[in-house]
DNA sequence: CAATACCCTAGTAACATGCTATGATATCGT
DNA sequence: ACGATATCATAGCATGTTACTAGGGTATTG
């Protein structure tokens, strides 16, 4: 069981934008360099994030991307869902539109997948981009000392 | 992000075997009928479970499969790992052999995936097949009343 | 000896992934 | 005005995985 690189890379990019929140728009090229990702691929991911309303863009020279809200207001779960779709370890417990099979009523194993789904969602929704920035700061401080 | 049908179907099958624990070996055909799965596909899944030491088999007529241990001793996590491999939402936080990238030291988003991994593992490892059997019993009782 | 059932391997259609390529459009600085 | 910088949009594509099916073989029972 794996998430795709979309969620993986996309979260990296959003974290990068969060660290530049409040400054000038950040061009994807610089995000790609810092996070060691392909610009072209990142463009596709950020398009999804824009569609989801999580980032804003400024076109043209000196342009780039920025978070649509403050890092404090953006949960990791929103980012990952925008890129990976709803949390659904198996189809019949999709968090938004479960494709329930005819056995749904008496399928006991279902409760396992529901619990897994809920615990994933709980983690994703309890961490904000600001939390990650704080963590980065803390780590930097530790290195210095 | 999804688990494959291997974990999904395999857990169903193991639950089925758990419900017949202590009786004669259960032929796959009957498991497949009850759980609405293809016999041929199930054979492949159960082969993996056997390799992992979770089930025993009896060949020939009147043969079939049975749990290698009591349902109380078999965690859902063991079943799922046998079929899906180690819990690893992204490769760099694989629970057994993480393919750490060169950024591992300063990659902050990593902690998100670690937390997700841990919460999945925690759920899987805190439920036994016996728990599922008890749940099934409870549900059956509720239906009657 | 035939019925039952486990065991093993190979093949394969369909789909998802993780990109790259190409080109268009908008904006800024000079 | 123009060229550099960026975003924006779509298409293509190699590779791998999934979810099976097919077609055997082997062991055991009655």
Q: How would you describe what is shown here?
A:
The structure is a homodimer of 145-residue chains. With 145 residues, chain A is mostly helical. Chain A has one domain (5-144): Winged helix-like DNA-binding domain superfamily/Winged helix DNA-binding domain (Arc Repressor Mutant, subunit A, Orthogonal Bundle), CATH 1.10.10.10. In chain A, 53% of the residues lie in helices and 6% in strands. Chain A has helices spanning 5-19, 28-35, 39-51, 76-84, 110-125, 129-144, and strands spanning 55-58, 64-67. Chain A has a two-stranded antiparallel sheet. In chain A, helix 1 (5-19) crosses helix 3 and helix 1 (5-19) crosses helix 6 (129-144). The first copy, chain A, is globular, with a radius of gyration of 18 Å. Chain A binds chain B through residues 1-5, 7-8, 11-12, 15, 35-36, 76, 84-85, 87-91, 101-103, 106-109, 111-113, 115-116, 119-120, 122-124, 127, 132, 135-136, 139, and chain B through 1-5, 7-8, 11-12, 15, 35-36, 76, 84-85, 87-91, 101-103, 106-109, 111-113, 115-116, 119-120, 122-124, 127, 132, 135-136, 139. Chain A binds a DNA duplex (30 and 30 nucleotides) through residues 4-6, 25, 27-29, 38, 40-41, 43-44, 46-47, 50, 57-65.
